[in-house]
Amino acid sequence: MNKATHNNEELLALIIEGIENVKGENITLLDLREISNTPCDYFVICDGNSNTQVNAISGSIQRTVSKALKDKPWHIEGTEQALWVLMDYVSIVVHIFQKDQRAYYNIEDLWGDAKITVLTTND
Known about the structure:
This protein is an alpha+beta fold. The protein has one domain (3-107): Beta Polymerase, domain 2, CATH 3.30.460.10. It has helices spanning 8-21, 51-69, 99-105, 107-110, and strands spanning 25-31, 42-48, 75-77, 84-88, 92-98, 115-118. It is globular, with a radius of gyration of 13 Å.
């Protein structure tokens, strides 16, 4: 199944389920659709407490999406050090950070024009 055969809402729900399955924290959704020249429609941002958990979140998202949609990310990077793993599903890009890396890069502020929805917090 390719990206044209499922909708963003279904993919978003599965990505969030994958994050929650392994206790990913501070899940935030940035809706970029109203901003011109953006790389995708949505960013999903979350964090984990260690490189092991960051990689576990990435793996859980891949398994959850693949099982339901038979889809896989177009590109993944950052799994070697697992400080910041980026998963590109073309219309949705997932950023999985360790907490200090997330604070340092502060993507939410960089994309301040986006509609930001905080889904879960675990502070």
